[in-house]
Amino acid sequence: xxxxxxxxxxxxxxxxxxxxxxxxxxxxxxxxxxxxxxxxxxxxxxxxxxxxxxxxxxxxxxxxxxxxxxxxxxxxxxxxxxxxxxxxxxxxxxxxxxxxxxxxxxxxxxxxxxxxxxxxxxxxxxxxxxxxxxxxxxxxxxxxxxxxxxxxxxxxxxxxxxxxxxxxxxxxxxxxxxxxxxxxxxxxxxxxxxxxxxxxxxxxxxxxxxxxxxxxxxxxxxxxxxxxxxxxxxxxxxxxxxxxxxxxxxxxxxxxxxxxxxxxxxxxxxxxxxxxxxxxxxxxxxxxxxxxxxxxxxxxxxxxxxxxxxxxxxxxx
Length: 317
Hints:
- With 317 residues, the protein is an alpha+beta fold.
- It has one domain.
- The protein contains five helices and 15 strands.
- The strands form four sheets. A five-stranded antiparallel sheet has the order 1-11-12-14-10, with helices on one face. It has a four-stranded antiparallel sheet with strand order 4-8-6-5. A four-stranded mixed sheet has the order 7-15-9-13.
- Strand 11 and strand 12 (218-224) form a beta hairpin.
- Helix 1 (106-114) packs across helix 2.
- It is globular, with a radius of gyration of 19 Å.
- The two termini are 26 Å apart.
């Protein structure tokens, strides 16, 4: 089951690298999704979200330099098991030297390890995005998130026999520019995080300056900069979105649109018990222009793609 919506909790002092960092505030992460109960949240990918750690998610035009695993940059021990109980959510939870992944596919693992989006992965068998696993891996204490990514690359090579190469392809992209008539996004209006204190019970997550949520036909943020907005639009459109607005600062965002096939694929089928509000008949490009005062211009540009050369079902523990 692919989650029907996702929440990105965007961090306050975030670095601008491959996607303009998002930090996660909640517990388990894959895509934060609203279950049929209405208010329960889960985690993931842009699919991938991480507990109290920065996640890279913004200017897709600047792709990362992938670290090569060294002999010392491997998990000390790792357990890979089939995911047997489909409770509909999952994700990654790094803690110290430990990394736990629940209900994840091999594609999820590749996206995490190499910091790419779905549309940047080419090839591979069908089970790569269907068969789900639970993973528990232990590495050196105090390992950083980047080190865990590198260790995951080694794990994929050793246990899944994964081999891949990188290609630069000329693909459709979007350039994000200011529309005629100017920006229509509201100024940032949110509750600043309290240092060394948990969020007060009476405060909703959506009131925090760190809040960003993407759903089927929705995008909400309390204080997102343009790199973060471009990164979120990249998830929703399934294309690299390059910020060309020149806008500084942060904005509150409220976007409603009719999901297209790309959005349905990324965020999963609708949940009849908890439908996302949409503006009937308004596609995302029209909604971005009318509601945000921005414009998505179709272009072609270089996009780095991971091409899967070979992969096998994981070796025994």
